[in-house]
Design a protein that fits this description.
Pfam families: Peptidase_M78. Keywords: Coiled coil. The chain has 230 residues and is mainly alpha-helical. 69% of the residues lie in helices and 5% in strands. The protein contains 12 helices and 3 strands, in the order ααβααββαααααααα. The model has no long low-confidence stretch (mean pLDDT 87).
Length: 230
């Protein structure tokens, strides 16, 4: 499934649940979709047989979609619990049935992105996994993955769903919105110029024409490269 479909679903959940702050309220979101939650410890007391079935299926969480009940391991670290709860929500909103590796990948992608949307990582200026962990309540493992995925996300054009989620979470007046659009266009032009410069530099070096770099346009491009890396 393409990321765009997952992004659209995340935007829908944020709007339906009125989410504006972080960390997002996972239990409130589940209640909005009429889910009941129960810890594994409590389930073990009430019904040891069902508890055994749930733990055998997953040590993190188990979802009974028909009855809208999610049982989860409350002894896991909080970030892991939050990820597991949103993972189970993904199976519900995407109407997954049966066991399918692709469905698990979709649920993981949904969970990581609904907990820490890439537009929010950018807005808060998170630089590393520690920043993401503290701001969004992800586990360190999920935070490290979010950093890697953010770097890839930042390189591509922002999707419509991402822009709409950005507007939903961080509404701007017309002046600021116009300024950001101009800034992003400028950044895209700079990246394109940098790519062209690197291609030209590679050609000159391969043909032993490095001295040409200090002349005319290429001198300006060389200065442009330095300004981006300072």
């Amino acid at each position: 499934m393409e990321y765009i479909y997952i992004a659209d679903m995340i935007l829908k959940v944020y709007r339906e649940c009125g989410i504006k702050d972080f960390p997002i309220p996972c239990l409130d979101i589940l209640r909005h979709y009429e889910f009941r939650t129960i810890t594994y410890s409590r389930l073990k007391e009430l019904n040891p047989e069902i508890y055994t079935l749930c733990v055998t299926a997953s040590n993190d969480a188990f979802c009974d979609q028909r009855n809208r009940i999610i049982a989860y391991n409350e002894k896991a670290v909080l970030g892991r619990i939050r990820f597991s709860l949103m993972h189970e929500l993904a199976h519900f909103v995407f109407e997954h049935t049966g066991e399918d590796p692709e469905n698990e990948e979709i649920a993981d992608c949904f969970s990581g992105n609904i907990l820490a949307p890439r537009v929010a990582i950018r807005h808060y200026g998170c630089k590393n996994a520690e920043d993401i962990h503290l701001r969004f309540g992800l586990s360190y493992a999920a935070s490290n993955k979010a950093v890697q995925e953010y770097n890839t996300w930042e390189q591509r054009c922002t999707l419509k769903a991402d822009r709409e989620l950005d507007d939903w979470l961080f509404p701007l007046n017309d002046f600021h919105r116009s300024f950001l659009r101009r800034l992003r266009r400028q950044q895209r032009r700079q990246k394109q110029q940098m790519k062209q410069y690197e291609q030209k530099l590679s050609f000159l070096q391969e043909n032993h024409l490095d001295d040409y770099l200090v002349q005319g346009e290429d001198c300006r491009l060389y200065e442009f490269q330095n300004s981006l890396t300072e």
